[in-house]
Each structure stands twice: as C-alpha cells, then as structure tokens.
C-alpha cells in the first residue's frame, strides 16, 4: 500500500477507534485518529487526508458536519461514514450529501478495506482527470504552434484578437496546415476553455446521418432512432463547436444550419422543443468557399455568418523559414515519445527539407520526421536518412539555377528546363489540379496546358 496515503478515523468509542486505526495501519496507510468532532475538524484544517472514516454520531458535532467541512475544503478527500443499524436514514442523507459510502456497525473489516480502496481509486481518477485537463490546456497554448515567419506572425496576431471575442471564425488553408490545431488553440486560450470543444468532421459523416449528428434526435424520429440522442451542438453548448470541412455539407443542411445560427436555438429531429444555444462557432475548410458560393454550391448567407473573422493558414512553401524550427521541434517531440536520448538533425538534412515543396504541408513534414527518427539507430538524422524524393527535388532546383558559363548555353533549352521544374512543382503542390497550378504560376489554365504539351511533361 501507498505509505503516503493519509486516513483520519473519527470515533468517540475508544475501542472502536483503536481497532480501526490498527486495521488500516496494518494495511500500510498513514492513520491518525480523533475522538471528538471538534478535534477532527482541527486536524482536517491542518492536514490533507485522502480518506476520512467517521462515525455519524459524535457527542459534540455530527458526522454530517464533518462531511460538509471536508467537502468544502477539498474535492480530493472522500468521507466514509460509519453508522448503527438504527440510523439508516441518516446514512442515506450522508450519501446524498456526498459521502463516498457508508458502513454499518458492527464493522465488517474486509468490507471497510474494500471501500477504502475504492475511494482511493476514485480520487486517483479525479487527480488524473485534472492533470489531463491541465495538460490538454497546456498543449494547445500558442507556444505549441511553431512558426516565426512573417506569415505566421500575422496568424498569431490575429489569433490573439480572436480569443478575446465570441465571433464566428472561418479557418482556411490547404490540407495539413494546422487548421484543427489552431481551432483548439483558440478554444483553450479563450474564455470558454473550461467548457467542451466539440469537433465534427462534416466530410467523414454520411449525409443521411449528419443532420442527426449535428442536431440530435428523439426516440422514434426515424427508423433506427431507438433512444433520444443529443446532437453535437447541444454537447458543445457553452463551449465551442468546430465544424471541420464545412464545404462538404449538403445544401439542405446548410439552410438548417443557417437557421440554427440565426435563432441560436435548436430542435432535435422529431421534437418541437427548442433548446437555447450559446455556442462559439469555428469552422474550417480547404475548399474555396467563395468559389463554391459563385457556383451555387454553398449558401452565400451561411458563408457570411461563418466567415465573420477569416483566418488563413499559409502553406509551408510560403513560410520556408519555419521548416527548420518545425523540423527540430518534431525531432525532439518524436524522440521524447520514443524515450530516446539525444536526438538531432544535421544541417545538411535540414537544407534538403527546406527546399522541398511540401504538398502535404506540416502534416507531411511531421510524418516524414517521425519515419526518419523511427528508422535510424543513430542519434542524429543525416542526409542519408532523407528520402530520395526530397533529395532529388533539391538537385533539380540546383541544376536549373541560372548560370551563364563561358562556353555559352542553349537559351531555349535552359528556359524550358526551368519551366519544366517549376511547372512540375506547381502541379505537385496543387495535387495535380491544373487550374490551381496555373494560379500558383500566375498564368491561365490554357497557357499551362499548352506548356505541358510543349515541354512533354
Ligand atoms: N504550426 C504548427 N506547429 C506545430 N505543429 C503543427 C503546426 N501546424 C500543423 N501542425 C501539426 O501538423 C498536423 C496537421 O495539423 P492539422 O490536423 O491541424 O491540419 P489541418 O489543416 O486540419 O489538416 P486537414 O485539412 O488535412 O484536416 C498535426 O499533427 C498538427 O499538430
Ligand atoms: Mg483538419
């Protein structure tokens, strides 16, 4: 047993008190005892007992008062009350007031031992929960979002303003740029941090289920609705709802969502009882919602409701200088996770990572670092660990660097080579979407298509 576990036994009956003290001490607990209620209160004031075992009837103060006092002082103490047969009612009262359990006299020592262990288990869970919560809060501080590029500084500046408001935020950015990370940071650094952060990935839930997932339903509302179920909006009440991939929600649900946001009220499917809502809305998308609005695929009015404060996360290729910081951060993180001692990444390896275009953005970088750390036995990651795809990328860039030599050069061929490299990089970043690649290169799509043909890409 844990020696540090402190237990207080309160009983005016000398032999009962001594027997309990002896029994619990023999289990390895650090046991103190008090013969009067007042004495017990004085001791509780000075020390932190994890468990108080108290008789309900004491000459001066009632066990219920002790219970009340303990509860006021700390939620990390449990009270077990001891009662005679005749006082079942008071025992029930004690339970209602928050006693952990009650034991009737004559005391069955084995039963008492079990109840004490259970009380300690409950506390352990509570302490762990508090610890986890603290950790979670810590985890999403801005300090864990790495970036010192001008582009990221603008993001931080805007985030600092956003956490002071309640307005709807729309986070945009390519895949893997940190939209969810930023959404959590906004919640856990804002005034609602003690309340829940509920994330809904709208693209991962089939259309038919999304409505009930968001708004909930009552029993019998549709086939398969076997019991009442609150939706994510209700779960997030007083906290934040994170509507991820908002661009994928179907038009009919867009209207319903708009109504909910306008009226700040929700009705579960099949019910006509409205529930008041007070939810902060953060949504995210990697789609071009403005374009979708033009195409009639996204409601304009909903777009404006969601996009009160826009927050754009730049792709990694627009903040190359963050790559070094992110890489060293992920190397440290991964080594820590794997309980590996010193772990570093060489300067040359970093140079290769810096030059790459990272179509999958920070997620791709993080995954690669994880893989490199796992696959090496050495305590430093070198160029040999960098996959050839990334090394070759840097070589192509170098080869096409403009360099007029004495012997002269073939201008047309050199320019074509540069075009070839840049176009394939743009296509890679755009995930093969020609219109997007053309936009990245500042040319129109037809020109790009012609070039691809001419350069035999
Ligand atoms: N600036 C950053 N600092 C540290 N870690 C980051 C940063 N940006 C992203 N990450 C990490 O990269 C991974 C991807 O981030 P996240 O899931 O937030 O991206 P996303 O934009 O939501 O991507 P998707 O559009 O694919 O859902 C996560 O593991 C996240 O912790
Ligand atoms: Mg995401």
Supply database-style keywords.
single chain; 457 residues; alpha/beta; Rossmann fold; Helicase, Ruva Protein, domain 3; five-stranded parallel β-sheet; 49% helix; elongated; binds adenosine-5'-triphosphate; binds magnesium ion
| Cofactors and ligands | adenosine-5'-triphosphate, magnesium ion
Radius of gyration: 32 Å
Percent of residues in beta strands?
5-15%
Domain module tally: 4
Which spans have pLDDT < 50 for at least 5 consecutive residues?
Answer: none
What is the name of the CATH architecture of the largest domain? 3-Layer(aba) Sandwich
Portion in helices: 40-55%
Let me know the average pLDDT: 88
C-alpha termini separation = 71 Å
Strands ordered across the widest β-sheet: 2-1-3-4-5
- CATH class division of the largest domain: Alpha Beta
Helix tally equals: 19
The shape is elongated
Number of strands: 16
Structural class: alpha/beta
Q: What is the CATH T-level topology of the largest domain? A: Rossmann fold
**Biggest sheet features:** 5 strands, parallel
Superfamily (CATH H level) name of the largest domain: P-loop containing nucleotide triphosphate hydrolases
SSE layout and pairing:
Elements: E1 6-10, H1 14-26, E2 30-34, H2 37-46, E3 51-55, H3 63-73, E4 78-83, H4 88-96, E5 101-104, H5 109-139, H6 150-162, E6 169-173, H7 179-188, E7 197-201, H8 207-215, E8 216-217, E9 229-230, H9 232-235, E10 240-244, H10 251-263, E11 265-266, E12 275-276, E13 280-285, H11 289-294, H12 300-306, E14 309-313, H13 322-337, E15 344-345, H14 347-355, H15 361-375, E16 380-381, H16 388-399, H17 411-429, H18 434-441, H19 445-454
Parallel strand pairs: 1-2, 1-3, 3-4, 4-5, 6-13, 6-14, 7-10, 10-13, 15-16
Antiparallel strand pairs: 8-9, 11-12
Helix pairs in contact: 2-3, 13-15, 17-18, 18-19
Adenosine-5'-triphosphate (ATP) is lined by residues 145-147, 173, 175-181, 286, 326, 362-363, 366.
